Prior knowledge:
The complex is a heterodimer of chains A (113) and B (114).
Chain A: E1 4-7, E2 10-14, E3 19-25, E4 32-38, E5 44-51, E6 56-59, E7 62-67, E8 72-77, E9 86-93, E10 101-103, E11 107-112
Parallel strand pairs in A: 2-11
Antiparallel strand pairs in A: 1-3, 3-8, 4-5, 4-9, 6-7, 7-8, 9-10, 9-11
Chain B: E1 5-7, E2 10-13, E3 19-24, E4 31-37, E5 43-50, E6 65-69, E7 75-79, E8 88-95, E9 104-105, E10 109-113
Amino acid sequence: KQEVTQIPAALSVPEGENLVLNCSFTDSAIYNLQWFRQDPGKGLTSLLLIQSSQREQTSGRLNASLDKSSGRSTLYIAASQPGDSATYLCAGNYGGSQGNLIFGKGTKLSVKP
Amino acid sequence: GAGVSQSPSNKVTEKGKDVELRCDPISGHTALYWYRQSLGQGLEFLIYFQGNSAPDKSGLPSDRFSAERTGGSVSTLTIQRTQQEDSAVYLCASSPRGPPDEAFFGQGTRLTVV
């Protein structure tokens, strides 16, 4: 069964700290992995998409890595800001006839001023 | 350009009534997904449309749930005889061609069954 796990479920850090969010997946036959941000009461905002052939993607202060062999992805946030406070979700895309994204339960990040 | 649009943004309905939720995908996107997010839970896959192929309905929780996609564009998720456990945020996403393309989500419809 394809499963995606995110640890920790919640994380609180002081402003300015660099941090890493973890995502692990059980099936390495992954098309890509996508990181999303969800603010309370809102939909999902796509942050980064890493294809299976890639090792990392960068956007501003965000860097996402993908290691298929170990079934892991990390989202690195540099110099965190209170505005980064949100729930971060990773999703593995396995394609095929289903084409559905398998989501982790998310990490709720709180950045304290 | 416009993103994925969902309507209504909030819906309160009485138990036993039918509801329809609408999703307007990004223009030109052939893949469309419906997910459900219950309070404190992760995202639950419901149904996936890709072009003219038969939709993957494997995630629909019961036969009270159905979805259509007319003309390869707008999709409607229908829940018949709503129950309190149907209360959740229903999220729609679209993708240019499905995997491995990026998926873009709408803001969701918050359904409350009273």
